[in-house]
Amino acid sequence: MRLNPRLEQTVAQAVLWVFTFATVAVLLFIIVFILSRGLPVLSLDFLTRSPVDMGKGGGIFSTIVGTLALTLLAILVATPLGVGTAIYLTEYTWGGPVTRVIRFGAECLAGIPSIIFGLFGFILFVTKLKFGWSILSGGLTLAFMLLPTIIRTSEEAIKSVPPSYRQVSFSLGSTKWQTVTRVVLPSAMPGIITGIILSVGRCIGETAATIFTAGSALRLPTSIFSSSRTMAVHFYILAREGISMPNAYGTAAILVLSILAINLLTYALMNRYIRKYK
Amino acid sequence: MNGAGTKAIEIKEFSHYFAAAQTLKRITLDVLKNEILGIIGPAGSGKSTFLCALNRLNDLIRGSRVEGSVRIDDQDIYGPEVNVVELRRKLGMVFATPVPLPRTIFENIVFGARLAGRTAREEMSKLVRDSLEKVGLWEEVKDRLDSSALQLSGGQQQRLCIARILALKADFILLDEPTSGLDPISTMKIEESLRLLKRDYTIILVTNNVKQSARVADRTAFFLGGELIEIGPTDRIFTAPADRRTDDYLRGRFG
User: Fold this and answer.
1) Residue B205: which of B95, B90, B130 has the closest Cα?
2) What's the rounded Cα separation, in Å, for the pair A45 and B194?
3) Is A183 helix (H, G, I), strand (E, B) or coil?
4) Could you read off the pLDDT of A236-259 as tens digits, one per residue?
5) Residue A150's closest CA among A100, A200, A108, A112?
């Protein structure tokens, strides 16, 4: 049986609208739920004081510092490696078997659960290389976890740069490196940055990979060799051990808000960047 | 300045292959200094490949291979000691679709000069003005040099691309169907610029539009299936072609 086209159109539109609405509703529900429980706990003290009594009292300052340090380290390590790999794969190879193997490897890496990365990081960095539970171990582990995403998104961004730009650049007497740095990368930048933002979000929210590698110390970290607890791990421990649900929600609220803020900020920056060159 | 009649490029028995396919077959021709050489022929006749062989842009495509010789300034450009980057600076190229880089008008013009390490602000400003004036674009854009080149109209973009080559201090201008996507007025402006530029540059104009070659070229070459069928003064080619196939093409019997 066939519906008449107009009815079909109406039904399709309605169904798609419901799907979209459901998605947005779930998202809104989570945000509202967390903020409604978390916001009352928030205060300047909560942000600027370190946890007291396993997190039952005090704030979450040390976990904010820990999260930022881990994320920063992971991004600083993963970005040059990932973007460099993407440039090599797209600009310096003809797409032969080696390229395909590397790309396949990167894709497989993307599918590995983060707890496996945690275990790998624990064995390699914490015990083998004797970095101990530290920001260094955690940051490096996160960096490896991010690599596939950064490689993939950078590759897509670089591939979407029109081939004619490269042609023009070469025809104006540029070397390969000049073409990559002056034409390809600037044009691919918005896409590359999107990949990095996604990665920042994953770092901030990651628990499994960091609990094994950065540990869960509540002291304020003093160097990259300090063990440190991230906000997500803090939330997990507070909630799981039933130490303090209000503080857990407070931490969650900060997590959600900071991810929102990072996204908004980067999109604003990117818009400015794109507008300048379009 | 005017060395008309002397050879600028000497091409001998030049063949080009993409993997197994031969795209140019034993081409022999000379390009004369300060002439506009028009190259006509149906799609797939090897015109663009020929043009890209002169600045070795074909090298970017995998499986590209050549035989024979192309001599510019008494140097075989496919010789081992050739600096390809320098070569491309000498033979500026304009593509069928205007391709301004996603930068400002100013940055587009100085792009090549900066690659070559010339950056002095004053020199660059002068370079931009001179180049834009030569293609008749200065008056139209002088107040918005710092806005994106992508905002220009198609015709303006193509003239910007020509100006970008002039800023390279190139000796040759290679144009690959430069007006194929443009309206008649923009086309006319570009043809006017070419006539003026002929005094200082040697120009090779590949065109799908036979009439364009008749309008601006001093000599015209007819390519078919990767072969050079004939070459001669434009008047002669259009009034008394020596080869039957040239005549057929010009009369629109195929193409």
Assistant:
1) B95
2) 73
3) helix
4) 999 888 888 889 999 999 999 988
5) A200
Q: CATH: 3.30.565.10, 1.10.3720.10, 3.50.30.10, 1.10.101.10. Which one for A65-230?
A: 1.10.3720.10
Residues 6+ away with beta carbon under 8 Å from A195: A82, A149, A150, A152, A153, A154, A157
Prediction pTM value: 0.82
Residues in a beta bridge with B27: B14
Which residues of B fall below an 8 Å CB-CB distance to A? 55, 57, 60, 62, 85-86, 88-89, 92-93, 95, 97, 99, 101-103, 111-112, 115-116, 148, 150, 161, 164-165, 168
| Reported ipTM exceeds the 0.90 cut | no
Q: Which of B101, B103, B116 sits opposite A173 (nearest CB)?
A: B116
Classify domain B7-101+171-250 at the CATH superfamily level.
P-loop containing nucleotide triphosphate hydrolases (3.40.50.300)
Distance CA B12, CA B30 (A): 8
Of A164, A152, A144, the C-alpha closest to A90 is A152
Domain regions of chain B by residue span? 7-101+171-250
